[in-house]
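Hi R.,

Here's the chain you asked about this morning:
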Amino acid sequence: MTAPPPRKDALRNRQRIIEIGRTMVADGTPIQLNEVARVAGVGVATVYRHFPTPQALIEAVSVDGLETLIQAGERAVQQDDPWTAFRDLLVRVVDAQLLDLALSSVLSTPTATLPGTAHLLDQLSSLFNKLFVRVRDAGLLAPGVTLADMTPLMCGVAFSARMHPAADAQEQAAAGRHYLDIVLNGIRAR
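And here is the predicted structure, written out as tokens:
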């Protein structure tokens, strides 16, 4: 037996909660579900019914960003030049980590809270793995560079860019791309 479709008011409430979460994340305000309920004008139970934890709400906020990265990964896999494809996706990932705080949180968390987020992360990971294997098999990576090295390196690039004295988010993203270029020069085969 199929569950009945969600009521229109429930869908509106969910969307409103996500919008409030998106604003809080963008402002750097820690997500507190009771505060989200107050600002959204819904009951606390309504928020918890949709999002049992702050991380679940952050994951919901990150869905658009994850889908955009997956699309970028799909385009990269289609590129002929393995190094350019690999670099292009990493630039997109670094930019996303610096410009979308929800996405940054989701990419740096070891496990997803929501099944939908886990699925999107698996898709992104699969695309990145294909690109990594292509660039490795083409002999373009320095000896000893492994797939397991990439996550800490990308987190390091994002952390370094956040520490850079930037005037705004765009300048910070430019610093991230600069640091990424340094890392890529270090891992590229000579």
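One quick note: The chain is about 75% helix and 0% strand.

Cheers,
M.
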